[in-house]
Design a protein that fits this description.
By secondary structure, the protein is mostly helical. The chain has helices at residues 8-31, 37-52, 63-68, 70-91, 97-104, 107-118, 125-142, 157-178, 183-186, 189-213, 223-251, 253-260, 262-275, 281-298. The protein has one domain (9-298).
Length: 300
């Protein structure tokens, strides 16, 4: 029997984030008329920090280790907290969901590129082949099984913002694995995530201040905004980041990135459910292609 680097528990951990991130994209579009995108990112992470405080209180005892690792932690807060979702929320205002998902699906390519350039991690031919299978599955969903629809796609500023977001996420994922952070801090997941969030909130606040200085739209407070904030903080924020961090530690960033390509598939299924449409055969074919890519990359 061939050996696999991927266990069922790790696969489950890496499947939860794309499911929640698909919901995050839907929520981001729904909240766009209610709050400016960078302010939405600030409010989201402020709420995540409040949720984390009862779990990550040991950060105070580990403050010495945090200060010793301040530089990489600041970079992780900038890329994973301050930039990624803010860029995504901004992109949703000027680009179509299909374009955004297509650009985000290039994440495995950027993950391999960042690993090779900054962490001396050369991708294998197996990882390259796995990426091709995974991207083929994503394209199948985005084109609804008709490759001719690719010719109708056009780039807008939001697509470029999402490309930058994908690069930020690749850098953040590699830092989760390779950043020189004290072992005691890494060993406490809540404290480790809390320090990233607290430092990231500083970047978020700076960006939100610039957003308001440039004349942002007013915030429409109410139950829809409160419910949306609670969802994106608890699900795509706290739970997804925790699962992603554990999954990257177990499987590595390159293999984990292939799971992120499940996001457009989940998004398509959510849309079908909300619209009352039955899943189509290409959904099953796309799922098979994405899983094939994951299996190829997981083989030793």
């Amino acid at each position: 029997m061939p050996a696999f680097a991927l266990t069922p528990a790790t696969a489950a951990l890496l499947t939860i984030p794309p499911l929640l991130w698909a919901g995050n994209a839907v929520a981001g579009r729904m909240l766009a008329p209610l709050v400016p995108p960078i302010t939405l990112n600030l409010l989201r992470w402020a709420l995540v920090a409040l949720l984390l405080l009862p779990l990550g209180w040991r950060l105070w005892a580990l403050r010495g280790q945090a200060l010793a690792s301040l530089r990489p932690l600041l970079l992780m807060g900038l890329l994973g907290i301050g930039c990624y979702n803010a860029l995504q929320y901004m992109a949703l205002r000027s680009s179509s969901p299909i374009n955004i998902t297509l650009v985000a699906a290039s994440s495995p390519i950027w993950m391999m590129l960042v690993g090779a350039l900054f962490f001396a991690e050369r991708p294998s031919w197996r990882q390259g082949l796995a990426t091709l299978f995974s991207l083929a599955g994503v394209l199948l969903v985005l084109t609804r099984g008709s490759w001719q629809q690719l010719a109708a796609l056009s780039l807008v500023p939001g697509d470029l913002l999402m490309l930058l977001a994908a690069l930020c996420w690749a850098g953040y994922s590699w830092l989760l694995l390779r950043a020189p952070v004290a072992a005691a801090l890494r060993g406490d997941w809540a404290a480790f995530l809390l320090v990233q969030v607290l430092l990231g909130i500083g970047w978020c606040a700076l960006a939100a201040g610039l957003e308001w200085h440039s004349g942002a739209q007013p915030i429409h407070w109410g139950l829809p905004l409160a419910a949306g904030l609670l969802f994106i903080a608890l699900g795509p924020g706290l739970i997804a980041y925790r699962c992603w961090g554990m999954g990257v530690q177990r499987a590595g960033p390159t293999l984990a990135a292939l799971f992120s390509n499940l996001t457009p598939l989940f998004a398509a299924l959510m849309s079908a459910l909300l619209l009352g449409e039955a899943p189509q055969p290409y959904h099953g074919a796309a799922f098979a292609l994405i899983v094939t890519g994951i299996v190829i990359s997981a083989r030793r």
